[in-house]
C-alpha cells in the first residue's frame, strides 16, 4: 500500500510539473508572416496554372478575411461589411476568449487560400509548420486564436459561395465564328479556347455592374489602309520590326518581357509541346504591394490594408475588363498580320488566349496603381524585383502610375495589342481604381503608419 501510495504521489507530481512546464510565451506575428503566406499562394497559383481572372479571386478573399479580423480589434480601421456586395459582419469573438488577432488573421488567410486552389497540400504543409511552433509557445492562445480564425474563414467562404464562380464553371465554352473577320480567333502555338468568357457574371466587390466602366468601342474594323483600325494594326507590325533590329539591346523588348506575366506559355520543340509558368498580371502587382509595404516599414494591419485594398481593386478590374473583351470580341494583331501583311511574323510575346480589346494588363495595372497611390502617395519610388525569379533584372519606377503606364505600353511592344486597347484600357483601369478608392472606407486615420 505504501509503495502504491508513493507511486501515486510521484505520478501526481509529474503531471503537475508537466502542466506547469507548458509554455505561455506570447506569439508574435510580423508582416513577414503575411508576405510569406501570400508568396506561398503565388507559388501555388503558378504551379496550378490559374488564369489571371481566377488568380485575382484567389488573392482577394483571403486578404479580406484577414483584414476583417484585424479591423475588429483596431479602432483605426473600418470593417468592409456593408461596403462590399452582400458582405455581412464577421462573427464577434467570445468575450472571455484570449485571442491573438494577428494570429487569427493569418490562420483565416491560410484557410481561405487552401479553399481556393488545387494543390491544397502545399498550403497545409506550410500551415502545419507554423502551427507546431505556435502551439509549443502558447497552446491556449494558439487554440483560441486558431478557432476564431477558422470561424471567420467559414463566414467568408459562405459569402464567397454566392459570387457565381461555381455556376460559371459549367457554362458553355466560347464559340468561334469564322464568318466575322473582326471576331477573335484562337492563336498559335496552342490555339487554346478563349478563357473565362463568362467572367462578367462574377459578382463584383465594389463596382455596381460589370459594365459600369464600359469603355468606348475600339476603332471600327477595316483593312482599308487609310482606316484608323488598319493604321493601328500596321503600327504593331512596324514597331516590332524596328525594335527587333536592336535585339538584346532593345529597351522596348526588355519592357515587354518584364511585364509578360503570361501564366501559361506554350513552347514547341519539334513534336514536343510543353508549358513554362509565370506569375499573372495581378500576381506582379501583389509583388509590388509587398515591395512598397516593406519599403515603408508597415506594421501587420497596415500591410493587410494595402494588400486588401489593392486586390479588391484588381478583382473588380478583371470583371470590368473581361466584360468588354467578350463584348467586342476583337481579333488579335497576330492573326491579321499573318493573314494580310507577313505570314512569317511572330509577336515578341506569346498572344494570350482571349479577345484583344481592352488590354487586361492596362486595366488591372491602372486600377492597382490608383489603389497603391492612395496608400503610399504619388511620388513613391520603388525597385521592382518581382521578375528576378524568371531571369529578368530589376526595373526602377518613380511611382505606381509610371509603372502602370509601362505595363500598358509593354503589350504593344510585345505585339499582342493595338494602341487603342492599351490607352483606353489604362484609362478604364484608372477610372475604376479611383472609384474603388472613393467608395471604400477602410481607415479612420490618414497617412502610412510604419513599425
Question: What are its keywords?
Answer:
two-stranded antiparallel ribbon; 451 residues; mainly alpha
In words, what does this structure look like?
55% of the residues lie in helices and 4% in strands. Mean pLDDT is 92; it is low at 7-21. The chain is mainly α and 451 residues long. The protein is elongated, with a radius of gyration of 25 Å. Helix 9 crosses helix 14, helix 10 runs antiparallel to helix 11 (300-328) and helix 13 (360-376) runs parallel beside helix 15 (419-439).
Layout of strands and helices, then pairs:
Blueprint: H1 2-21, H2 31-48, H3 52-72, H4 101-116, H5 120-137, H6 139-160, H7 165-168, H8 228-245, H9 251-258, E1 265-269, E2 272-276, H10 281-296, H11 300-328, H12 333-340, H13 360-376, E3 382-384, E4 395-397, H14 400-413, H15 419-439
Antiparallel strand pairs: 1-2, 3-4
Helix pairs in contact: 2-4, 2-10, 3-4, 3-6, 3-10, 3-11, 4-5, 4-6, 5-6, 9-14, 10-11, 10-13, 11-13, 11-15, 13-14, 13-15, 14-15
Outline of this structure?
55% of the residues lie in helices and 4% in strands. It has helices spanning 2-21, 31-48, 52-72, 101-116, 120-137, 139-160, 165-168, 228-245, 251-258, 281-296, 300-328, 333-340, 360-376, 400-413, 419-439; strands spanning 265-269, 272-276, 382-384, 395-397.
The chain-level structural class is mainly alpha
Averaged pLDDT: 92
Give the termini separation.
Answer: 63 Å
Q: How many individual helices?
A: 15
Spans of at least 5 consecutive residues with low confidence: 7-21
Strand order of the largest sheet: 1-2
